[in-house]
Specification:
- This protein is an alpha/beta fold and 293 residues long.
- It has one domain: Phosphoenolpyruvate-binding domains (TIM Barrel, Alpha-Beta Barrel), CATH 3.20.20.60.
- Helices cover 46% and strands 15% of the residues.
- It has an 8-stranded parallel barrel with strand order 1-2-3-4-5-6-7-8, surrounded by 6 helices.
- The chain is globular.
Length: 293
């Protein structure tokens, strides 16, 4: 099992650790949140283009997977250039990931076109679709990719259980990468939220689902298709996935010390994710207070 780095807008100038063979996920929503802008703004698209281009250069000898935006409604609402501002009662289970992209396709096309243009000069740049529930959604995404002339690899996040149950259908569409997102998968499988005492990504049911993904990709996947595991991961899960035969384990930048033993002092952007989350929280509180006045 190999290691891939997961990025949340950290502006890397090197590979951080020799154990990383590529980038398992650029979580594009944090690029938006870091500059407080959304895709309809050209400045947002330019920033993302330049950031991703730099990461592709740093990891020129490995694959780079760009995950399309995985923002919930309250996070988009406070961004400049937000295309649709609305309140959603159950936003964690609502219009997020691919389903928002397919509902508001004009904005989604702007995001995909931006990455497609970069992919023509960066052959190691690939696309990962998050929070996708069935192959019918992927077919619509692939149609949009064709329209923007994206010709590199594409993959899906396996985080909604329905995607794992019907994984053969996704694989039949040529998926090269199935990345298990243990955060949402654990929540949706165990009926928990992350801060509860019941949220355990190493629960036997979650591990069984990861094992199912590996078995299905080996049985039905095209040659070279891989299984990655990502999320708020830990050393215990890493060891389990290695035994199960996962191809890659994605370690988000802030989690590197706990899994690879790197000195936090050697990671200059160790607090960046925390700072971006705090910024978004501040803007949401400001918006709520403004409504009360």
């Amino acid at each position: 099992m190999k290691y891939l780095i997961g990025l949340q807008a950290e502006p890397l100038t090197d590979k951080v650790n020799d154990k990383f063979t590529g980038v398992g996920m650029i979580r594009s929503e944090y690029l938006c949140r870091s500059i407080e802008e959304y895709f309809p703004l050209q400045s947002c698209r330019d920033f993302i283009y330049e950031y991703v281009d730099n990461i592709c250069r740093v990891f020129a000898d490995g694959e780079v997977w760009y995950r399309t935006a995985e923002l919930i409604a309250p996070e988009i609402n406070v961004l400049k250039g937000a295309d649709h501002v609305f309140e959603e009662k159950h936003y964690l289970l609502g219009l997020r990931g691919v389903r928002r992209g397919l509902k508001y396709q004009e904005t989604f096309m702007l995001e995909l076109d931006n990455i497609a243009k970069l992919s023509t000069i960066r052959p190691n740049l690939n696309v990962l679709f998050p929070y996708i529930k069935d192959a019918a959604e992927l077919e619509k995404c692939l149609e949009m990719l064709r329209k923007v002339n994206f010709a590199n690899k594409y993959g899906i996040m396996a985080e909604i259980p329905s995607a794992i149950i019907t994984l053969e259908d996704f694989l039949a569409l040529g998926v090269s990468n199935v990345t298990v997102g243990v955060n949402d998968l654990t929540s949706l499988t165990l009926g928990t939220y992350r801060e509860s005492g019941y949220h355990d990504c190493t629960h036997p049911a979650v591990i069984k689902l990861i094992e199912t993904v590996i078995d299905k990709v080996r049985t039905y996947g095209q040659k070279g298709a891989v299984v990655n595991v990502a999320g708020t991961v830990n050393k215990k899960l890493c060891d389990i996935c290695k035994k199960l035969g996962a191809d890659n384990f994605i370690i988000n930048y802030p989690l590197i010390p706990g899994i690879l033993g790197t000195d936090p002092a050697a990671l200059p952007y160790i607090n960046q994710l925390k700072e971006i989350k705090a910024l978004t929280k501040k803007r949401r509180l400001e918006a709520e207070n403004a409504e009360l006045k």
